[in-house]
Amino acid sequence: MSPSSVTPRNVLFLLASSREGGNAEQLARKAAEALPPGTVTDWLRLEDSLVEPFRDLRHAPGGYTRPPPPELLALAERTLAADEVVIVAPVYWYNLPSTALAYLEHWSWWMRVPELRFAERMRGKVLSLVTAHSSEEDDSVATPSLMSLRMSADYLEMRWRGGLIGHGNRPGEVLQDTRALSAAREFLVRPLSVAKVEAA
Ligand SMILES: Cc1cc2nc3c(=O)[nH]c(=O)nc-3n(C[C@H](O)[C@H](O)[C@H](O)COP(=O)(O)O)c2cc1C
Questions:
Q1: What is the pLDDT of residue 192?
Q2: Which residue ranges does the record assign to the NADPH-dependent FMN reductase-like domain (predicted)?
């Protein structure tokens, strides 16, 4: 596989932290700096688009009888326009933040909007995680987030790039994490075949 065949052309960064400019976002921006010229990057704060909670209407009479509201449809379309979706999400209680989980829940709705052809169009896209945590032990606190996204990627027959993990608590502390910064330089440009979880 040549590098050009795995380098994403249109990368959507979905910011899931409940604060702006935090560690996960700063690490993701470092990773984005390594993308080759011509790559289209799209940055979106999930909480701005998640205007209503997901409702499971799969088995309700008539199922999903109305289309998603414009904000959620726009989020679906931006997802579908991307070659790679990067979930930029700190560790919250050993898991993904609620905004990231809500985003994944909405996939279940979008899969049932026939015009979107969501599952069909997600197939083959790349999914990855950029995360940050403040554990003084190791990176195992990020394992549930990684597993959740990896298995979700498998379910939709997406490709899984892996995770980029940084350490920090106050905003900007991740910039002291030299291992994470080094990993960030190649995270989004390396061939997928060597995808693995980056320890920080
Ligand atoms: C609600 C909440 C839960 C958290 N849970 C954990 C945790 O389980 N493990 C951990 O190591 N850090 C935890 N943290 C710390 C954050 O992961 C850490 O501060 C991270 O750098 C925040 O990323 P951000 O700056 O991108 O928002 C938590 C922080 C918050 C606000």
A1: 87
A2: 10-146
**Considering the domain 3-194 in this protein, what is its CATH number?**
3.40.50.360
- DSSP letter at 141 equals G
Q: Point out the ligand 1 atom lying closest to the alpha carbon of residue 22.
A: 25
- The CA distances from residue 56 to 4, 79, 102, 111, 144, in Å, are 40, 21, 12, 12, 23
How much is the pLDDT for 47? 97
Check: CB of residue 91 under 8 Å from CB of residue 145: yes
User: Which atom of ligand 1 is nearest the CA belonging to 171?
Assistant: 25
71, two tokens: 């904000």
- 12-39 per-residue burial string, b: 16 or more CB within 10 A, e: under 16: bbbbbbeeeebbbbbbbbbbbeebeeeb
Q: How far is the CA of 109 from the centre of ligand 1 (A)?
A: 29
Per-residue tokens: 78: 């931006």
**161-195 pLDDT per residue, tens:** 999 999 999 999 999 999 999 999 999 999 986 44
- Mean per-residue pLDDT, 46-61: 96
- Average pLDDT (123-128) is 97
pTM reported for the whole predicted model = 0.94
Separation of alpha carbons 81 and 116, rounded Å: 11
Q: Residues lining ligand 1, CB < 6 A?
A: 17, 19, 22-25, 90-94, 132-135, 141, 168-169, 171
Q: How do the domains of the chain map onto residue ranges?
A: 3-194
